[in-house]
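Quick one - first record:
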Amino acid sequence: MVGPDSESEGAFRSPAETHTFAGILLDMDGTIVNSTAAIIKHWHKIGKELGVDPSVILQTAHGRRSIETLALYDQSRANWNYVSHIEGLIPKEYGADAVEIPGARSLLASLEHINAPWAIVSSGTRALVTGWLDVMSLSHPQNLIVAEDVTVGKPAPECYRLGIDRLGLTTEEMRAEILVIEDSPAGVVAGKAAGCRVIGLATTHSIEQIRESGADWIVQDLRSVTLSSKDVAVHGQIQIEIRNAIQY
């Protein structure tokens, strides 16, 4: 998992542009918080218990549900009771190792302030997502779609389709007006497959990986994604300003 290299950072220079959306769906890890250091420690602990090299697990763990990762190594642990338990411990045991993605706190607070239609759509369990929101003292969405809510995780679009349904935005026209914000290629693919427009954050993967996954915009972090108005726009829509995106 890598962010943009220093030579590529100069590419983030597109002029600001404003777009109107009916709702916003955000991924959690790598999008709102960067818990990479905590997750690495977590999988080292689990890998030791399983007798599996943690580096092998970590090659495919990001953006994938833990239940699917565990199923590759020990089917007996691939159940929601166990997964919720171990993920719920991560913010408690490794909370000091997580940091906010720059701009995340401000964006979530702004969405909450105007009562915008938004949700978090995560490959993590409810215990993990709410644990991070609590530890980091970040805004909680009214709608939360987590690993237990879907039968197939990202890159399948089921999670984002469920998020759209939870926001009550179910027509094809409305789906095209949903903004997904993601950091992983699997998440970007899922958002696009659900019919949404997608901002890819270059926080955990390379620019090329995000571009190849089909993101409509690529930015460094959430400092480039802000509300352009303090009020919900006409018909309940949200005006988002996107600054310093990759030009491609």
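second record:
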Amino acid sequence: MSLTPFHPVTPLDVVRVRLQSQPAPSPVSAIRSVATSSTPTSFSNLPPNLGVSACCREVFWVNNNAQFCMVGPTTSTVDATSVAAASECAVEETQRKTFNSTLDGLRKIARNEGLSSLWRGLSPTLVMSIPANVIYFTGYDWLRTNKRSPINGYVNDTYAPLIAGSIARVAAASVTSPVEMFRTRLQATSGSGTGVFRATLKGLNEMVHAQGYSSLWRGLTLTMWRDVPFSGFYWWGYEAVRNSLTDTRDRARGRTLDPSRSRTRLRSRSRNQENHTSTLVDSFIAGATSGAAAAFVTTPFDVGKTRQQVLQHSDDVRSPRSQGIEKILRPEERSMPRFLYHIFKEEGAAGLFRGWAARCLKVAPACAIMISSYEIGKKMARNMNERR
């Protein structure tokens, strides 16, 4: 049941990664300024992967495999008309690969790379969903309900979901971190066909050979920055909304909570007496509401994680830097707080929340379906055990 949400919302996840890893400000304006220049000399200062090299081959009929298109007076066969044609081609290619919104990204990816590209990363998502959800949900339940859990003795009921959710996510993320890194790199790569999958897998293989198996967990810290706050806020919000719905239903039935008794146990007993429909509706509403809110609040961490992992991927596929040259620390190589502050200074709040719509549209239904399926399954299992 936990695999159900991932299939329909995977396209939103692909668009989210592309939007967040897209250069800012928009590369369209940068390349247009080069194209309209009276004497365009090069495209070397533009962001990579914009298809500009294809324009070189198309306009100048040369086997140019460079990452950037170079145009200048040193090329004797290039006249002003060819330069203008290359510039216009570059603008069109850039517009084709630049996304302005979630809907625009869905449309362009489907049109330029094929419909199947929108489901890129589904396989690794399914692979990691089983162990991740088993550890995540069972870990949270144990921390919240087991008498031996340290949370029950030292943490107030109000904040217990936040702490339990955060700890459960740490355990789940530690197990699935290598698959998460592979999925992020796969979704950030443009193109179509099985070549993208093979190239990404080859890149990870080369990274392991060069840096050891521990490099597969290199993105764990980045994942923690995003997932741990999200899980804490999600379970905190879920319990709050679910409790509110349970209390409202109890008041409608004439029941009142005894202030001298534990509210958690009274609500748990009330939920055990609910039918499957009430459990499904309450958990679905609470899951969708808290999931959307937590996704929005933690979007800056998601942006930082995506950009830093994509940068690490581009470094892995590039040739090593020459020794003896002092390495300049790029913004993406800073700590997460400093990198997020850099994004805020350069791009404002809009940069920190880039892709929030796609993220919320993906997370809300996924959380709603997962938690309601889990609650129904848990209720059915409890009823079966009681009949024995």
